[in-house]
Amino acid sequence: MASFGKFVAYYRVSTQKQGRSGLGLEAQQAAVAQYLNGGDWQIVGEFVEIESGKRSDRPELDQALAAARLHRCCLVVSKVDRLTRSVAFLSKLLEAGIDVRFADLPQIEGATGRFLLQQMVAVAELEAGMISKRTKDALAAAKRRKVKLGGWRGTIPTARTRAKAVAAIEARAAARATDLAPTIASIQAAGATSLRAIAAALNEQGIPTARDAGVWSATQVARVLERLPQ
Fold this sequence. Notes:
Layout: E1 5-13, H1 16-21, H2 25-36, E2 41-50, H3 59-71, E3 74-77, H4 87-96, E4 100-102, H5 110-144, H6 159-189, H7 195-205, H8 218-227
Parallel strand pairs: 1-2, 1-3, 3-4
Helix pairs in contact: 7-8
């Protein structure tokens, strides 16, 4: 099936020599191209990590995730074994809040692909079953206590709750501004210094706005710049 939309590609090679020679890298690029399989798609960024799978720091992965968040698109990796299977890595992906695709998983080829797919399905089914059971048990217990279910309880959010909600919104906006900072800096370096010119460049590059709708305006750019350290 052909793929559509934007993608960020992440590749990993284990040694400096391998990175310079392209050994392994070309095969990964070919696997990603085969996975995308025609269609109307565009790779908006490619990142190559040269390091050992035993290390937890991956600066190129951080940049790839930032690019995927910036463009609101998927991160595609050639093979799942290009990444260590660690809790830290999975947590980083979850925190990034993006869709990650592995080129070898759709075909479910090889022991790794089958194993991961089975485990993901098994975990999802187990969690769904446990949540369903806990919910049903809680509702049954509430009914036994003659608790009235459903409807408005007249609960008004406290000042602390409202403050937490505002803080969460501010944190998301600050994180988005941080993701946009390198792109805006490059636009400014190219000579676009006015807010309107920066907005036009962002629109031309297809960078989504905060709400993933509409086009960039000078006001929106000003708000982003206000959140960046001077």
